[in-house]
Q: What sequence folds into this?
């Protein structure tokens, strides 16, 4: 698993990834990772992870890397595919 190509910063995408899940007082057979689809703008791309933004606070005087909003950082190894919307 792990996505090889990431769309450009600013693209709105569906990000398909596998999430870690903890189970307490459950059968061992129930303990499996969960498939997730998140929607967001590609905000940052690094060698190991991406950051997607589901919301930005609008302030045009703030540089891109200092913007505030709602962000999710996803290791590339957890991502199975990214689709530009």
A:
């Amino acid at each position: 698993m792990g996505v090889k190509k990431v769309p450009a910063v600013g693209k709105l995408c569906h990000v398909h990834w596998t999430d870690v899940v903890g189970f307490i007082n459950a059968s061992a057979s129930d303990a499996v990772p969960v498939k997730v689809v998140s929607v967001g703008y590609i905000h940052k791309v690094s060698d190991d992870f991406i950051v997607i933004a589901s919301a930005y606070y609008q302030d045009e005087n703030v540089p891109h890397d200092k913007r505030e909003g709602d962000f999710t950082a996803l290791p590339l190894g957890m991502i199975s595919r990214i689709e530009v919307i």
